Structure formats: structure tokens, C-alpha cells
Amino acid sequence: MSPTDPRFHNNLARALVQKGMFEEAVVEFQKGISMDRSAPGRPAHLAYTFARMGKTDEARKILDELTEQGQHAYVKPDNFAIIYTGLGEKDRAFEWLDKALTDRFGPPFIQIDPVFDDLRSDLRFLEMARRKGLAP
After folding, report:
1. Residue 119 Cα distances to 4, 18, 68, 103, angstroms
2. Would you call 5 helix, strand, or coil by DSSP?
3. CA angle, corner 94, sides to 135 and 53, nearest 5?
4. The Cα angle at residue 40 between residues 36 and 43, in degrees rounded to 5
5. How large is the C-alpha radius of gyration of the chain?
6. Which one, of 99, 95, 75, 76, lies nearest residue 85 by Cα?
7. What is the pTM of this model?
8. Which residues contact 34 (CB under 8 A, 6 or more apart)?
């Protein structure tokens, strides 16, 4: 594991989020982002973390930045699903998750990714997973 690799900081930050260590996760996400700004998934997970902390203004700022970026370059739809999930906006999260699952670069791990835990109890999640061949 190399602390100079932005993926190291991203993975560590995601683990910290799952432990409820949000402040520490923010620091690690920011380290990873500062090393490599080209991966929009890092800001999306940072926005998710801010939303979980109740810092919705910070989360929405990142959402706005990704929306703007999406007008000029490709941004994977699951990034928006991640942010809306963190914000607790399930309808918008499902809208973007559906787009992500029809996208050729859609998230292959939605059934196990802890970011989507809050969506799994919703029948729309099971219906979507079945429709996409990800559930029996």
C-alpha cells in the first residue's frame, strides 16, 4: 500500500465512512482528490460523506460541480446516485442508479456496495436489480 497513491486514500476513506469516522474520512478523501482530480468518484464519495455528516451545503456544492462538469465531459451516473443517496433523496438516487445500470460503465457492485445500503430496503431496488439481472 502506497500512501502516494490516491486510491489508497480513497479506499481508506470509504472504510472510515463505514466505521462512522466521518471527519477522518473527509481528510483522506481530500488527500486523494488533491493527488488526482481526474476521478469524479472521489468527489462523489466526499459529497456522500458530507451529506451523512449533515453538511448538505458542502455536498450540494460538489453535486453542482459534477453537474457542471457533466455538461462538458462524461461523468458516470452512479456518482450522482451516490450523492443523492447520501442526501437521503431516494427518488433522485433511483433515477440516477437506473441510468448507471443502463450505462456501459455502470456500477457492478450495487448489491454489496455499502453506499447503497439505505436503498436496499426499498422495493424499487430489488425490482431494479432483477430487471438488470443482478438479483434472482
Report:
1. 34, 16, 26, 19
2. coil
3. 110
4. 85
5. 14
6. 95
7. 0.90
8. none
Q: What CA–CA distances, in Å, run from 80 to 8, 40, 94, 120?
A: 22, 10, 10, 17
Looking at 36-122, list the stretches that DSSP marks H as alpha helix, in order from N- to C-terminal side. 41-52, 56-70, 77-87, 90-102, 117-120
Could you give the count of Cα atoms lying within 13 Å of 122 in the half-sphere of its Cβ? 15
* Distance separating alpha carbons of residues 67 and 107, to the nearest angstrom: 19
CA 69 to chain centre: 16
Is the per-residue pLDDT at 83 higher than 90?
Answer: yes
Among 1-15, 78-92, 122-136, the least confident range: 122-136
Residue-level pLDDT at 40: 62
Domain locations in the chain?
6-131
What's 16's DSSP letter? H
| Class of the CATH-defined domain 6-131 | mainly alpha
**Could you write out the DSSP letters of every residue in 28-53?**
HHHHHHHH-TT-THHHHHHHHHHHHT
- What's the rounded Cα separation, in Å, for the pair 119 and 93? 8
